[in-house]
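Supplementary Methods. Inverse-folding protocol.

Structures were first reduced to a discrete structure-token string of length 433. This string, shown here, constituted the complete conditioning input.
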């Protein structure tokens, strides 16, 4: 019997996803110094399109070149010239060559912009990221006029993405980036119409969804990536998330992707502490021991009809099928395994039981020094270094069409740091900054 995961899904806007597997958004770092799409991005997405997922989400594309999530991001922060448009079109046609969807994830990093990119990024309020290591600068609160300008930029970027051949857009409101900062009372301490009550904190996101819908029309998919919770005391919690999901459903969102956490609390990447955090009306399930946010999705499904995508931790076909069968997810997002095993979706649809796992093997420190990760600052460095290993696989896929799984975490860290520094230096020189 064919897998449930092979069934197409019709979205509220009428678009059809050919199957239930999606490549989750993963920042590529492969744009040129102007933030333009490149041949390396084409090669990377050819591999992912051949990989068999019904939908590919791009890594976060920035709507403001001064607020990159990282050096090497694609940037759409102005009307593109013909060459820029052509490069975006090439990328979109490479990424859709198997008839799958390709959606642009639009984002602004806010206070999570690295100091290397901008020492004084704009954010809802002047509240700095609470991490040791000095990677992030002191943010400056956005003015009303700047907020309105950013809302317009999300709309412009969405229009351009549609024009060049993306088949949908996703607004990134999760993981502690700008829109997630607005949603959280910890990082949003404003007392104007953009802060305070949940309605005010969600206003920017809802304005953006409405603006994007106006420019892309009724038949083009719009998705939002939302945290189920920030997992921080006094932060954006599940009740808030459920209410925002209801508003997004009313606003006509086609697919809500559920994730969680931020740089301060990177729950999107692991399981630690998730069982205690599950919503009270849903017992943590066996399935939830593999998939981090599935219990949140089940609790959400009980109250909303909009299609849900759940991302984080899925590795076995059985867990993916169960999540779809139980109605917790309509689409399953797959991230890390596709960096070193891009054919994963095709293999799962062909009957493979389990994607190869790497996350537990990757370590910066040798076994004799593992105890060092009990120190908070070193744990954070270890976390970033392991993340860099995936970045390095993406570089390899983009440059050669093949991953480089034998690379060590230490080698990957050095490669990514050097590449990012060089990219920033060349960008400053190119822009005369
Ligand atoms: C290398 C890498 C880059 C990522 N970049 C993004 C991103 O640009 N946007 C986003 O929403 N999430 C990003 N994520 C998070 C993933 O979309 C996903 O939520 C996370 O990896 C958990 O799914 P997984 O367990 O299948 O890897 C990234 C994750 C990785 C590993």
């Amino acid at each position: 019997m064919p897998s449930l995961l092979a069934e197409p899904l019709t979205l509220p806007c009428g678009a059809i996803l050919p199957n239930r597997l999606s490549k989750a958004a993963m920042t590529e770092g492969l744009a040129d110094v102007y933030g333009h799409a490149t041949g390396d991005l084409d090669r990377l997405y050819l591999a992912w399109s051949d990989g068999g997922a019904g939908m590919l989400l791009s890594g976060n594309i920035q709507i403001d070149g001064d607020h990159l999530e990282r050096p090497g991001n694609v940037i759409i922060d102005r009307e593109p010239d013909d060459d820029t448009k052509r490069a975006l079109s090439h990328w979109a046609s490479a990424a859709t060559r198997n008839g799958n969807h390709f959606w642009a994830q639009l984002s602004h990093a806010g206070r999570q912009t690295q100091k290397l990119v901008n020492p004084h990024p704009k954010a809802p309020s002047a509240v700095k990221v609470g991490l040791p290591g000095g990677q992030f600068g002191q943010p400056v609160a956005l003015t009303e006029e700047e907020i309105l300008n950013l809302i317009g930029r999300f709309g412009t970027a969405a229009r351009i993405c549609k024009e060049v051949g993306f088949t949908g857009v996703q607004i990134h409101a999760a993981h502690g980036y700008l829109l997630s900062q607005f949603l959280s009372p910890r990082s949003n301490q404003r007392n104007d119409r953009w802060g305070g009550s949940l309605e005010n904190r969600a206003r920017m996101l809802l304005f953006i969804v409405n603006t994007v819908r106006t420019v892309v029309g009724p038949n083009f998919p719009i998705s939002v990536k939302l945290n189920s919770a920030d997992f921080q005391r006094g932060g954006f919690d599940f009740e808030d998330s459920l209410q925002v999901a209801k508003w997004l459903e009313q606003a006509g969102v086609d697919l809500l992707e559920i994730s969680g956490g931020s740089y301060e609390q990177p729950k999107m990447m692991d399981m630690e502490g998730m069982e205690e955090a599950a919503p009270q009306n849903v017992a943590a399930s066996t399935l939830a021991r593999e998939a981090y946010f599935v219990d949140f999705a089940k609790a959400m499904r009980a109250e909303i009809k909009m299609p849900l995508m759940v991302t984080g931790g899925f590795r076995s076909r059985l867990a993916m099928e169960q999540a779809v069968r139980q109605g917790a997810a309509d689409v399953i997002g797959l991230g890390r395994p596709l960096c070193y095993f891009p054919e994963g979706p095709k293999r799962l649809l062909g009957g493979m039981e389990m994607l190869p796992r790497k996350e537990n093997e990757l370590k910066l420190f040798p076994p004799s020094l593992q105890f060092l990760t009990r120190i908070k600052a070193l744990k954070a460095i270890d976390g970033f270094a392991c993340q860099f290993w995936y970045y390095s696989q993406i570089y390899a896929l983009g440059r050669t069409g093949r991953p480089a799984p034998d690379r060590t975490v230490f080698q990957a860290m050095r490669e990514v740091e050097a590449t990012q520094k060089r990219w920033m230096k060349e960008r400053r020189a190119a822009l005369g900054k």
